[in-house]
Amino acid sequence: MPWMSPLARIRDALAGQRARDKDLRNLVSNLPYEGLDKWKQPNRHFRNNGIKTTKYSVLFFIPMNLFEQFHRLANLYFVGLAILNFVPVVQAFEPEVALIPICVILALTAIKDAWEDFRRYKSDKKLNRLPCFVYSSKEKCFVEKRWKDVRVGDFVKVESNDIVPADLLLLYTSDPNGVCHIETANLDGETNLKQRRAVPGVCITVSNTDILLIIHAVIRTGCLGFSHPDLVLKQHLVYLKGGCTVRNTGYAVGFVVYAGHETKAMLNNNGPRYKRSRLERRLNIDVIFCILLLFTMCIIGSLGHYLWLESMPSVPLYLVPQTDGHLDTPSLSSFYKFFSMIILLQVLIPISLYVSIELVKIGQIYFITNDLDLYDEETDATIQCKALNITEDLGQIQYIFSDKTGTLTENKMVFRRCSIMGREYPHKENECVRRALKMYIYKIKILMFTKSLPPNQQETEVILDQKLLRQIRGTEKIDAYQDFFLALAICNTVVVSMATAKRLRSNPLDTLSSLVRRAGSWTRLRAPITSETSANDLTTQGQSVNQTGGQTCSLHVPPQGTAPAVPAGKLCYEAESPDEAALVHTAKAYGFVLMSRTPDSVTVQLPSGAQLRFEVLDTLSFDSNRKRMSVLVRHPISKQCILYTKGADYAIMELLETPYGEKQQKAIASDTQQHLDCYAKEGLRTLCIAKKVLCDGEYESWAVQRQHALAAMDNREQLIMDSAVQIETNLCLLGATGVEDRLQDSVPDTVMTLREAGIQVWVLTGDKPETAVNIGYACRLLEQDDLVINMSCKSKVRSLISNSQRKFPLYPEVRRYSEDPRNVDTTPDISLVIDGRTLTMLMSPDLRDRFVDLARHCRSVLCCRVTPLQKSEVVKLIREKLKVMTLAVGDGANDVNMIQAADIGVGISGQEGMQAVMASDFAISRFKHLKKLLLVHGHWCYSRLANMIIYFFYKNAANVNLLFWYQFFCGFTANAMIDHWLMIFFNLLFTSVPPIMFGIMDKDVSAEMLLGLPELYRTGQGKGEYSFFTFWISMLDAFYQSLVAFFIPYFTYRGSDIDIYAFGTPLNTISLFTILLHLSIEIKAWTIVHVFIILGSVTLYFIVTLAYGVRYLNYSGYWTLQAQMVDPMFYLVCLISTVIALLPRYLFHVLKNSITCSPIVEARHLDTLEPSTRDQWIKEWRSFRGRVQDKTSDVSASPPSELKPTQSSSELNIRLGLVLFCHI
């Protein structure tokens, strides 16, 4: 490297910073400068492609980690106390000893941080060493290099299924049209393929093998910049982001524009989100209480020391003056003792609690992720815990906000019905074949011990409707019917690829479709037309008759001499959503086969076998505001510009105007709307299909505005949407479709169980109200006996809401219900159905509070036609106004805002990519897994952690209070009767592991009981087990136990000649026994681990104390424990003190478990029965609860006579106790 002056280096660094900060980046190829020094490289100012996500280096790990840890106020507090102990006038004990607790905590945290950083280092190392191909001017070919060696200005070749190493400008692809298909699942979770096209004018004249001409052509340009108009307008089409994967393309060549940490993927990587749980927020408040308590005790000690000095008639001999003969005044000495007392009693603030909580949460997450009940065999996926610090919040959820499509339903679409030009075609056979095929697949799955049908298989099942076939084959309205199916095939973003390039997992059932075709007689139903069976194959199959008399046939017989179409079995459709896949497969089943798609064209094969290649003029993508998408094409025969549009019914119907005549169009629209309403009531997802023919002048005028909108720098998105709205007018209605999206397994049971657990379930969906209500009844979100209130803009919303002044909204129906004398002291089951427009009005400031008051008294709320933004606003509103714990669950990109707005976000890895999973705190594969995740693991996590935290506060207070009581007998001089080393070991060794294992492994109730009795979940809602009351009860218990542990030995040994360490040894031993036996009382489920840990702690205490007393010969308490252990009084004092100290706690548990039994206690009693007997009790209790109904508030009603047991009276008490808490 040539020598450069410091000033030159500074100038070069500043020039590099300016080059990196420029919005317009001019780049020069590295090929002419290959082999030169770094300082001679033209692109040296830009970063290389090496990735470094580690936070530390080996050399600076200790100072950097300490600097980061000292950002925590607790660590600074304890370090300050340790330093303060080095000041002689306030020194409480040996300065070195005071450093041990904080050093251990800092060391454990540093080890954890080092391990996490080492894992990041290994991940970076693996990523940086990935191979890629970079062109070398010396070798005259592409050579293999590592990712970290790629630099800005290099030419990189990416082959199929390889990950793009950096942000590339696409120059050439193996596709003749210059198209490259990429998958961005690694970046945004979207699994659908996207198209990118090479830079215009670079690769169109170059053959596939002559790549060198491309590279030399680029070199001759000198530099590349995004100043070319075409590149500015279509930059997103020629740009390959680093991290995406090349699919269905042989290879692609690109020019590196951004590398390493300057790539879009790294710039958008903001790191993990941090959420604080409610328990943690409550914990911080109690820590403040402990600090106030500590300061109170220190003030008492300071005042006590002052009064003690003032009470002495003369200066005692043991108060040694300083070297100059000066003796501190009582006031100054008491001031010093205040700080000495803080150092002595610092253990009252649990320094190790936060580390223990992290260890407990790691153990809890281990058990959650290894639960086989949360594993889905079909997707081979288990639960993912992405937020490690909010597991306990799973046990406190009060509101669940759920998406519908893909969350409650499978998001596997089956084409069921359609309406074309006002005539309806039901396709009833599709449902019959679906059910029969599902049963057949299930039988094959059992026989072959393999997974179920591939996800996309059921989307391809379409049986031709004979009535529609005859209509298409006729001459009447043939243009409209053909346009309908052309719109289904064209108006989408489906990518066509060969079957050999499809991204499939290895599955023994890949050939299942051929088995089904050969098994045509297994149900006496005709075989469905799938993606594996083309329309032309039907001509050789002839006609087959099913049990209903239907037939399948081709649309038209190909003329002689026509070349056979490409076999449909060799085509694969990569759809952005299952809806698009179902519609494309439907068009294919009727002979309108989507053959290929490029950025500029789309090819469709007609039923006759002829192929039409439409020129794609523009694609107006779907957005949540327009609720539709459109494709503008030029017809290859008529040369007309045709706009095909599909979207929500209300978004299309208001844009209609047809050339067929106003009267006829009104009739078609009216009939189609009736069909749509019928589809919605059946729970089908509906879409309207329309078209528009544009003249050339109209298109050219619009195209100019469209180009200006695409090139705009300010307000670009709004201008693009306005341009789309401008052309999507005066549409001609072609028809509508109804696609079935079935419920997932066990969804009704899960919704009912969650409601019984005291959780209110809201469904926020973009579907029609009729469709959403139908699904609501199917999943038991709505019940037949519910009082369903439908709120829409047509109703008088403001007057209705204004009536919500009392306990619940006084609608006329509710008023009549409450005035009925038979319904005194009862609450009706109210369900609310509201559409998006009404919700927008209700979110206004003047109606917001009243809407919340109305919704909080509804058992279920169903919001329809809502946008992603409205979903997040509803979640935030309920969370902030009602101060409740919320959970949002969804599966698609439109659910991300809602998931991030809730306290806990749960993503479902469904059919709409992984955006929701990537934005969530927990990821599951089925909605039914939510039941066990919340009711079992959520309850356990909260119960364990809450009880462990309470126990931690109690443990530290009980131990440190022994030192405080001793101050009353030593003049408040901040002396201790226990050796300082043993004081440190007490918290670090003897009592540290048992509470951690208690927080990881304890189970207050079994999983079977928690699932069988969902009402038990309510014990964690609201304040739960960890409240202000339970905290102070435990602290008072700690004070009582410390009083017993101190004063019983004190009165026993008073007047004897034992020294202070001989007096402190039984105190320390009693404290250990009391604390460990207290934990034994709190443990609900004993295991061998608990026994081993507790006995091990006691054994370790005696071993360490004995060894410590033997080794240190100058130790003032030498051989103290050995001498105590040969004295029977020692054992008697320890026994009596421990029993008396634990007696109130034990009596409290006895009374609580026998007289005032809580639901948890009753369930634990029931859990002790035999499994068969226990299940019978649960069944009878649940059946009784169903007859009593949730409406009644009188929980003291006795069960009916047929439920009165013949078993023992103890079992009768259990049953009656369960009945009593059925409405807690």
UniProtKB/TrEMBL annotation:
Q: Which residues bind Mg(2+)?
A: 403, 405, 891, 895
Kindly list the residue ranges recorded as spanning the membrane: 73-91, 97-115, 283-308, 335-357, 966-990, 1026-1048, 1060-1081, 1088-1109, 1129-1148
Its Enzyme Commission number(s) read: 7.6.2.1
Q: Which domain of life is it from?
A: Eukaryota
Which keywords label this protein? Answer: ATP-binding, Endoplasmic reticulum, Magnesium, Membrane, Metal-binding, Nucleotide-binding, Translocase, Transmembrane, Transmembrane helix
Subcellular location as annotated: Endomembrane system; Endoplasmic reticulum membrane; Membrane
Q: Write down the chemical reaction(s) this protein catalyses.
A: ATP + H2O + phospholipidSide 1 = ADP + phosphate + phospholipidSide 2; a beta-D-glucosyl-(1<->1')-N-acylsphing-4-enine(out) + ATP + H2O = a beta-D-glucosyl-(1<->1')-N-acylsphing-4-enine(in) + ADP + phosphate + H(+)
Q: Which residues form the P-type ATPase N-terminal domain?
A: 42-97
Task: Extract the PROSITE patterns matched here.
Answer: ATPASE_E1_E2
An example molecular function term from Gene Ontology annotations: ATP binding
Q: Which residues bind ATP?
A: 403-405, 580, 622, 646, 685, 765-767, 865, 871, 894-895
Enzyme type, top EC level? translocase
Indicate whether Magnesium appears among the record's keywords. Answer: yes
InterPro entries the UniProt entry points to: ATPase_P-typ_cyto_dom_N, ATPase_P-typ_P_site, ATPase_P-typ_TM_dom_sf, ATPase_P-typ_transduc_dom_A_sf, HAD-like_sf, HAD_sf, P-type_ATPase_IV, P-type_ATPase_N
Active-site residue list: 403 (4-aspartylphosphate intermediate)
Membrane topology of the entry: Multi-pass membrane protein
GO terms for cellular component: endoplasmic reticulum membrane; plasma membrane
Q: Which cofactor does it need?
A: Mg(2+)
One GO biological process this protein is involved in is:
phospholipid translocation
Could you tell me which residue ranges the P-type ATPase C-terminal domain spans? 917-1155
Instruction: List, alphabetically, the NCBIfam families matched.
Output: ATPase-Plipid, ATPase_P-type
Regarding protein family, the annotation reads: Belongs to the cation transport ATPase (P-type) (TC 3.A.3) family. Type IV subfamily.
Spell out the protein name for this chain. Phospholipid-transporting ATPase
